[in-house]
Amino acid sequence: MMKLRLILFLSLLFSTPTMAQKTDSKLQKLLEKEVENFRGDIGIYVKNLKTNKVAKINSDTIFSTASIVKVPILVGVFDKINNNQLQLNQKFTYSEKQVYGGSGLMQFFKDSSETDLSTMVSLMLSYSDNVASLWCQDLAGGGKEINVLMEKLGFAHTKVNSRTLGRESDWKKYGWGQTTPEEMARLFILIRQQQLLTPQLDDKMYRFLKNQFYNGRSLSQIPSTINAIDKTGSVDASRGEVILVNAPSGDYVFCILTDNNQDKSWGNTNEAEVLTRKISNLLWNYFEPKNQFTPFQVVE
What is the DSSP letter of 245? Predict the structure, then answer.
């Protein structure tokens, strides 16, 4: 109970008007120029954790999460671990009835294969595995329970829609999940600062989030020797990413979400993905003027 009160207090601190964030005017102008010709809806939130300065575009607007919804699912699973209802080494048996299309490896498991929760979480985050993610969502109590948890933690607009009773209309509009750029960035900040669940569990979530198979967007635009946590999301008309970078001059976080994109193509030339890479490199070179980085061409 005391831990929950502390979390609610921290959430209020983030949202209260008296704690208004100072805008980085120069960066704000750079971002506005970068996105002015984007053919779709876009939201961006950037925060330098050392200076506490921000830049934002439609940062409180609700967007589709696509696979970024797997971050709140992760939190839901770890809340169950915190309450001794799940364990990372807990064993489960995979059934071919769980096959679900899209990204991931678990759909290729043999029927009756044994796995454990740690493997499922790793597949959900690293390979954005849909079968593992739906399994984790169920183990976390389902979308409704995850949504209640998100509200308690101060994330009023971050919701799981898919397979969640009462959210059918939201599912039709946003897909699997919905959030705002600022909320998703703030979720990463609380995990980084070990202020979300417990320091030990936040540290473990951070370690899971570091291992990304899909590293051709924002991660490709910072030096490979730099640590970062990241999650991307992709469906035809929506692309998004949230990333927190442990840069030499201080951590920074940003979230880019897009909807109603005219370019629905798949591949590295997709307009939203190209823009995401440009913004990621812009931010690295902006925050790290002494460590300028020219990335390699993205490998196909």
Answer: E
How far is 206 from 208, CA to CA, in rounded Å? Answer: 5
Is 68 among the domain residues? no
Domain containing 256 equals: 21-61+212-300
Which DSSP string corresponds to 19-86? Answer: GPPEE-HHHHHHHHHHHTT-SSEEEEEEEETTT-EEEEESTTS-EE-GGGGHHHHHHHHHHHHHTTS-
pTM: 0.91
Strands (E), the chain: 22-23, 41-48, 53-57, 63-64, 91-93, 114-116, 159-160, 177-179, 228-235, 238-245, 252-259
Residue 7 maps to a domain: no
Using DSSP's 3-state secondary structure scheme, residue 140 falls into: coil
Predicted confidence (pLDDT) per residue in 8-58, tens digit = 444 444 443 335 689 999 999 999 999 999 999 999 999 999 999 999 999
Tell whether 162 is covered by a domain: no
Residue 27 falls inside a structural domain: yes
List the CATH number of the domain containing 226.
3.40.710.10
